[in-house]
Amino acid sequence: MTVAVGARLGPCEIQSPLGVGGMGEVYRARDSKLNRDIALKILPEVFALDPDGLARFKREAQVLASLNLPNIVACDHHAGQTRHREGKMIQRVFGLLVVLSLTTAPAVLAQWAKQRDPRVPSLRGGKPNLSAPTPRAADGKPDLSGVWWNVRDPLPKGVLAVEGDDFTAPRHMIDIMADLKPEQVQMEPWAEALFKKHLQAQGALDPVAHCQPFGVPSHLSVYPPHKIVQTPRLIVILHEYQTVFRQIFLDGRNPIPDPNPTWNGYSTGRWEGDTLVVDTVGFNDRSWLDRLGHPHSEALHVTERFRRRDVGHMDVEVTIEDPKAYRKPIVYTLRQTLSLDEDLLENFCTENEKDAPHYRP
Asked: Same structural domain for residues 316 and 219?
């Protein structure tokens, strides 16, 4: 079976494929328990369901574990399940895995060496002080620069993921209405009908599932990291997923009337005290506001308020206004944490993409 980048198998998150062997596929992954990069070998179902195949693989693991090699941390096996977007079982067993340390991985893996953010002060003993005061740029404004991750939450009840039942994701990536009671959700009839159609398709119509952009504001709420590069006249947001960039102009310009509709729109920003306020207009109507499928029209207006609370934490308040689709604004807040020593990696959705032909609305 082919495992998607970003999928989670127990404590391991898949980062990239490494190769294919006679008994399975090998992936680079991040083990949250070991707090290190590992190599993950996964058996196909034909082996995983075969007692002789399992016994053979266990013997391999035992031999590897007995070797006195510096990169071998542990060898273990793991059984699990994965579901398709419709929630139907498509594999009963992930198979078995071998855990190898990749802390001395070869350069061909294109993994950046860890580089501690020099703007993060240390406590006594060298531990980073994430509660230190917000750093300032040369012009005195809060410095929003850095690599940021959204805080992840358990999936809402009834929402299934290909990655498994223990998968977590930022709550507003899944549902922009997550903080609202059902009676507070006020959609126009056409938008409500389209939303129900998206739900019934169970993800098969999601533009992202077909390697289309997330768009604004959705891309800022996903679980892969993004990087903010700040200058006095321009802020650039670099998104790891799909290697997409976004420009926020601080030089006083305005979008032209009736601009060409785009996925990310046209963003202008201004400072209100220590808060960066970003207005974005000029959207097409092809993106979804979340992965449940809330739609929008080309009249969409997004306002984002970035406030870095301290060195390690930032809040982004998002206001969605679309009078053609929703009778009142939708407001939610993203909680983000600073990555201390990691940087973005290249990611292209279309590389080795094999899922879309199997979607069934």
From this structure: yes
Nearest to 295 by CA among 207, 181, 182, 184: 207
Contact between residue 30 and residue 13 where contact means Cβ atoms under 8 Å apart: yes
CA proximity to 92, closest of 60, 50, 61: 50
DSSP state of 262: B
Listed in sequence order, the DSSP H helices in the chain are: 45-48, 51-66, 171-174, 189-201
Q: Say if residues 220 and 237 touch (Cβ distance below 8 Å).
A: yes
Same-domain check for residues 55 and 163: no
Range with the poorest average pLDDT among 19-33, 157-171, 213-227: 19-33
* Distance (Å, whole) CA 16 – CA 108: 12
CA 245, chain centre distance (Å):
15
Residue 122 falls inside a structural domain:
no
Whether residue 130 is contained in a domain is answered as no
- Asked if residue 298 is part of any domain, the answer here is yes
Q: For the chain, give the longest Cα–Cα distance.
A: 69
Instruction: Give the span between the Cα atoms of 144 and 232, in whole angstroms.
Output: 12
**Domain-terminating residue out of 85, 111, 137:** 111
| Residue 268, domain member (yes or no) | yes
Report the alpha-carbon angle 278-281-283, nearest 5. Answer: 130
Q: How many C-beta neighbours within 10 Å does residue 100 have?
A: 22
The pTM of the full predicted model, rounded to 2 decimals, is 0.69
